[in-house]
């Protein structure tokens, strides 16, 4: 696993090495070019926010928050493992073929891609599928990855609802309340739409006719997709619980920087995080975007700009640490090849 990540191939049966990635399509190349530009803009905004908040005041707030970091790290680790559980449950009746140990390893490795790649969570699920395809098959792993992504969308939409309520209680009928309300509806519809598309027989038939190479595997993909309900409860619950842990994480970060926090403020902070993820999709790690969102919402949190900004800074610090852990995982954590009868 020390080399470059490989593309998941639906043609590859279980245990067969995966093919190398093909050249990027035009849209992907455009996004690849835009991403560095957005990264520069994000870093510029990041620097301006730190200058305006005052480096001394920020350092004082961050130093005071340091004792809370172990708790925040534990919450983030638990959230990642719930995400891994959601993907494992998405395999349905074939979940037993995928060792939980290998799933946890794949989750840590995919964290790097989820935080840095343009497609975020979608790219992370694709990498998990590639890493786990030897235990089932390319088509089955791809179906589980897509189901997990759909479950994540639905869970994020559902957690946005109490976040929208918290935003209304703190800010009234503001842009933040509206953004979270729209976020709720769009993500649930997107998740349900993905699952409908995966299960649609007409779409499967169209793929078989148009892309003959996929024909033998489209049926396996759709059979796996139809192996659970349209909105699979267990993967959704696992992802929803993970988002719930993230609410607790942001609540702990708010307390750490000195904000008097209730459940309302914790859900509002999570709402800021969710909106930042959506708005800053092209910015690596949402650097500058989440800091700006928290800084602008300092008044709603009844705190200073430095304290609100520190929440985003600490959250990014936790992200960076897990990206480093994920980068080292392939080097220090090896897995055995799946046993074949």
Plain-language structure description:
- The chain is mainly alpha-helical and 341 residues long.
- Helix 10 (233-256) crosses helix 11.
- The protein is globular, with a radius of gyration of 21 Å.
- The protein is built from 13 helices and no strands.
- It has helices at 26-53, 55-65, 69-89, 100-116, 121-132, 138-171, 175-199, 201-210, 215-225, 233-256, 263-279, 289-296, 305-332.
- The longest helix is centred in the middle third of the chain and has 34 residues, at 138-171.
- The chain is 72% helix and 0% strand.
Summarize the structure.
The chain is built from 13 helices and no strands. The chain is mainly alpha-helical and 341 residues long.
Labels describing this entry:
mainly alpha; 0% strand; disordered N terminus
């Amino acid at each position: 696993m020390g080399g470059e990540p490989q593309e998941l191939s639906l043609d590859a049966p279980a245990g067969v090495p995966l093919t190398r990635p093909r050249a990027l399509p035009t849209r992907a190349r455009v996004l690849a070019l835009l991403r560095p530009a957005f990264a520069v803009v994000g870093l510029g905004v990041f620097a301006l926010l730190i200058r305006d908040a005052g480096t001394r005041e920020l350092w004082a707030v961050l130093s005071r928050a340091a004792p809370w970091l172990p708790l925040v790290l534990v919450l983030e680790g638990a959230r990642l493992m719930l995400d891994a559980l959601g993907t494992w449950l998405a395999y349905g009746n074939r979940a037993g073929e995928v060792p939980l140990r290998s799933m946890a390893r794949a989750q840590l490795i995919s964290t790097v891609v989820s935080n840095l790649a343009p497609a975020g969570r979608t790219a992370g699920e694709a990498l998990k599928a590639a890493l786990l395809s030897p235990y089932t098959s390319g088509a089955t792993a791809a179906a589980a990855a897509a189901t997990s992504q759909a479950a994540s969308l639905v869970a994020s939409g559902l957690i946005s609802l109490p976040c929208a309520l918290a935003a209304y209680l703190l800010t009234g009928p503001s842009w933040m309340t509206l953004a979270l309300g729209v976020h709720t509806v769009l993500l649930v519809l997107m998740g349900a739409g993905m699952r409908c598309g995966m299960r649609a027989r007409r779409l499967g038939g169209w793929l078989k006719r148009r892309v003959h190479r996929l024909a033998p595997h489209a049926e396996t993909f759709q059979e796996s997709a139809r192996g659970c309900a349209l909105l699979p409860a267990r993967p959704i619950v696992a992802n929803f619980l993970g988002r719930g842990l993230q609410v607790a994480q942001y609540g702990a970060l708010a307390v750490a920087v000195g904000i008097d926090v209730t459940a309302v403020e914790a859900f509002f902070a999570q709402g800021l995080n969710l909106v930042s993820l959506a708005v800053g999709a092209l910015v690596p790690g949402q650097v500058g975007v989440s800091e700006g969102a928290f800084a602008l919402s300092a008044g709603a949190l009844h705190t200073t700009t430095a304290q609100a900004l520190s929440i985003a800074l600490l959250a990014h610090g936790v992200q960076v640490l897990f990206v480093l852990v994920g980068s080292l995982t392939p080097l220090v954590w090896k897995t055995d090849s799946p046993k074949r009868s």
